[in-house]
Amino acid sequence: xxxxxxxxxxxxxxxxxxxxxxxxxxxxxxxxxxxxxxxxxxxxxxxxxxxxxxxxxxxxxxxxxxxxxxxxxxxxxxxxxxxxxxxxxxxxxxxxxxxxxxxxxxxxxxxxxxxxxxxxxxxxxxxxxxxxxxxxxxxxxxxxxxxxxxxxxxxxxxxxxxxxxxxxxxxxxxxxxxxxxxxxxxxxxxxxxxxxxxxxxxxxx
Length: 205
Hints:
- The protein is mainly alpha-helical.
- 46% of the residues lie in helices and 11% in strands.
- The strands form 3 sheets. Strands 5-7-6 form a 3-stranded antiparallel beta sheet. A two-stranded antiparallel ribbon has the order 1-2.
């Protein structure tokens, strides 16, 4: 009889039991987890357990891995405290992954401010994520703050054909036509005969 994970209403199996012999007793950090899961075999074992597999044999069947490779991977994951093993039974310690993620988030340094002005930085932080606009602000005052930040990608004194303007703006947001129009309307860019140049905004010195 073949085995398949039952995904209906089944979450990752986890164990609320004490540590096995040889298991690290301190918390597992995110970097350690990433290092462990860089190994394809261990990654497949964790994925199978997360989908509901509960024994060495079930993991081997669903992943197609040799049973001995599953056992070795489970042993290594168990030593790190990520998997509990009781004979052939396996259980993923899902709470260890969550704890590592929370610890990594708490220890991460705060992001660099996008503006020296606290009010402007609050606006930019709400609309800029990883160098992209999550949306174009509908409120005029917020949109102006975002546009003044965005226009800095254009070098003063340089002339840009429209295709280059579109390429620079597409890095920020797919609606390049709207951004071009807003920048021109605010006097941050000037357009003439299909050529654009910067005509407003702050200049970094």
